[in-house]
Amino acid sequence: MTEGFIKREQAGVCWLEPAAILAAGGVRGGFSTRLGGVSKANRASLDLGLRRNDDVDTARENFRRLFGAAGIKGKPAVLSQVHSDRSVFVTEESPARGLSLMREMEADAMICDRPGTVLITHHADCAPVFLYDPEARVIALVHAGWRGAAVCIAAKCAERMICDYGCHQERMLAAIGPCICGKCFETDGDVPDAFRASMGETADPFIRRMGEKWHVDIAGLSAVQLMMRGILPGHIARTELCTCCREDLFYSHRRMGADRGTMAAFFELI
Predict the structure, then answer these.
(1) What is the mean pLDDT of residues 221-233?
(2) CA torsion, ordered 162, 229, 32, 66, to nearest 10 deg
(3) Which helix (H) or strand (E) holds 58?
């Protein structure tokens, strides 16, 4: 695995880009920070939440600023996220609908082979996972909270890309963006039990017990799941940036509770 996200800033807006994926060409994308928007108080300043935010117009203005800075031009597709292992296709029959929740699309991953559509997932400690086959010209974006990661959502999404879109695991690129780190993600025993149920002993290096609590590395576990599906280790990038540790860059549900802003991952074929 490689350290693969680059910090970008324009007009005060700051975001992170998956370097190897963008270098492959044909896509734009990234992961927002909390910097560069117009939201106030605990949501300051680039809150992109659409479900949690009472002021949706402010979130839409923040999206306008982010997309303008990052050069994103397509029509957004936004899921109703439910912490599942379900992925959906964004197609002509189920098209993007702009910055409104697609409530009939309850899922945590989207797959698309249509230029001009921007896949969007929302995050405040859960891992964003970008998947791309540059030859097949297929992208996917995954919201991997611990519940989704425990049932291998990123690997299952990759499997659908391979089976339904003709992608090949040895060509595919993956990038796992900022999320809560293993040091900050302190849990009870149900979380490690869920990972061991799906991964067996393979999960153990990413789970540590400290006293009565457990610490779990969601990004590391997601990366191993992708490798188990055949994606090459050198094609998987991640970042050590933690959404809980880095108060200067990110909102965090663990650190801030429910009254906080939301980041977004975004990914577009061009």
Answers:
(1) 98
(2) -10
(3) helix 56-70
Cα separation, 133 vs 141, in Å, equals: 12
- Residue 105 CA to residue 122 CA, distance in Å, equals 14
Q: Are strands 236-238 and 2-3 parallel, antiparallel or unpaired?
A: parallel
Are 119 and 267 contacting, i.e. CB atoms less than 8 angstroms apart? yes
pLDDT range class, residue 187, cuts 50, 70, 90:
very high
Q: What is the pTM of this model?
A: 0.97
Mean pLDDT along residues 191-204: 98
Residue type for position 96: A
How many secondary structure helices (H) and strands (E) does the chain include? 7, 17
CA 66, CA 59: separation in Å to the nearest integer?
10
Strands annotated E in 67-200: 75-80, 87-89, 101-106, 109-112, 117-123, 127-133, 138-144, 173-176, 186-187
Q: Which two tokens stand for residue 243?
A: 């959404």
Domain assignments of the chain as residue spans, ordered by start: 2-269
* CATH number for the domain whose boundaries are 2-269: 3.60.140.10
Return the ∠ at Cα 49 (arms to 44 and 55), rounded to 5°. 75
Average pLDDT over residues 69-96: 90
Phi-psi region of 12 (alpha: psi -120 to 50; beta: other; left: phi over 0): left
